[in-house]
Predict the structure.
Amino acid sequence: MERILQKIGRINEHLLIIRSIEDDCSRRFAADPLYRGALLHYLYLLSDSCIVLAELVIKHKGLRIPQSYAESFDILGENKVLDADFAYRFASIAGFRNFLAHDYEKIDQEVICGQIMNSLTDVDVFLQQIRKSLGLTG
């Protein structure tokens, strides 16, 4: 359980950093390579940490082993750790993580600064549902 709590803390740290630099994202993303690099780095860390947390919860609960990153969220949905519809939608974070890891030069600032930044609340929902399933408060 300690590793799960540490990972939840790490995800909250990443969210805090990303939210602290999200103002004027489109302009800064286009004009400032240090800003762009920092934002993409923290988005990668956030998405990867969510995957690791899903895997830790699966192991903690003794659920079947996922065959892919995305399947981790499906398994949590099937076992009512996450709401099934939410789990299906949130599984796309695995594809986003892979995209950041492997297709760096094709990143669209409007997708990052619009769609992705507006989806950060999904991470909050993910954490809330994980905490509830594990009987954690706060």
Remarks:
- The radius of gyration is 15 Å.
